Amino acid sequence: MLGINIPIVAAPMAGASGGLLAAQVTAGGGFGFLAAGYRSADSLTSELSLARGLLHLNPSDPLPIGVGYLAWQLEKPTANPEALLSAALDNHVQAIWLAFGNDIKEWIKFIRNYDAQHKRPRPTTIFVPVSSVEEALVASDEWKVDVLVAQGNESGGHGYGSAPPLFTLVSSILAALPTGGPPVLAAGGLMTGSQVASFLVLGAAGAVLGTRFLMTPENWPTGVDGRGLYNNTVKDMDNGVDVETVKMKFEAGVRDGDPGRMLVWSGMGVGLVSEIKSAEEVIHELGDAILQRLKVASELAR
Ligand SMILES: Cc1cc2nc3c(=O)[nH]c(=O)nc-3n(C[C@H](O)[C@H](O)[C@H](O)COP(=O)(O)O)c2cc1C
What we know:
This protein has about 300 residues and is an alpha/beta fold. The protein has a single domain (about 10-230, about 265-300), classed as Alpha-Beta Barrel (TIM Barrel), CATH 3.20.20. The chain is about 40% helix and about 15% strand. It has eleven helices and ten strands. It has helices at about 20-25, 40-55, 70-75, 80-90, 105-115, 135-140, 165-175, 195-200, 230-240, 245-255, 280-300; strands at about 10, 30-35, 65-70, 95-100, 125-130, 145-150, 155-160, 185, 205-210, 225. The strands form two sheets. An eight-stranded parallel β-barrel has the order 1-2-3-4-5-6-8-9, surrounded by eight helices. Strands 7-10 form a two-stranded antiparallel sheet. Helix 2 (about 40-55) runs parallel beside helix 4 and helix 8 packs across helix 11. The protein is globular and about 60 Å long. The protein binds flavin mononucleotide. Keywords: Dioxygenase, Flavoprotein, FMN, Oxidoreductase. InterPro entries: Aldolase_TIM, NMO. GO terms for molecular function: dioxygenase activity; nitronate monooxygenase activity. It holds the Pfam family NMO.
């Protein structure tokens, strides 16, 4: 579906994934998303041009990266959703990711209409993250999305506190989806090729990694929780330090860029990262490890 060799997708991470990261992941053999996050249409266009240049593509070529939207940003009364979505579509991106919103169905309709009007031979691949079987069935059966991203509780950044652990979520979604349903990608806490291989064996089509590629802060609507590093801000809250003092120290931490105080989004697997490497190297390393583990798994079946 995506034309990639290594079944790894880099999550769109607001404030963290730009054109550079997305292009590097795709160049490495995975599939990179850039985060629309809180960007304007102009900023999105310039990140897309950056990615296009890095991938040595002409302006008329399809762009083999995706753009991930925070749907509630499109739904704000002051937003211009058509301009934001068109920035990606006019740049002929291969995929669009729509997360956390009330009108996702509308945005999907907009994208499908755009593809039809522009007679795109290959329609835009639509990804939607889900954190329950119910959401997965709506996205699959009603919205007809192309890819489901099962976002487990281990996921870094925003997500539903009510999400089950990834293993349970992926297993339940796969059991509930009808035959011929959309492929399911596993997201949340995944750092290594062995972990990804284990989800392939379970029946997932691939994995979405966020924290492995980067980390960053933001701020949010009801129902959506967040997972970040356990630092002195959280420790003070746990120890009952009064909120005003915690806030004051937090603000000072943000001013000083102190990760011991500021918010650093991160998934549950962060402890498994021991070195900083380029996104391309990460993709290659993951690809090799996935193959190696799958070979071991097939040996077991002999
Ligand atoms: C720094 C950061 C920012 C994120 N921003 C977004 C976002 O803008 N949109 C979105 O759908 N998910 C966002 N996520 C969640 C990812 O889509 C993905 O589910 C998560 O990173 C997977 O877990 P992992 O970080 O443990 O790999 C973000 C995650 C992180 C770590």
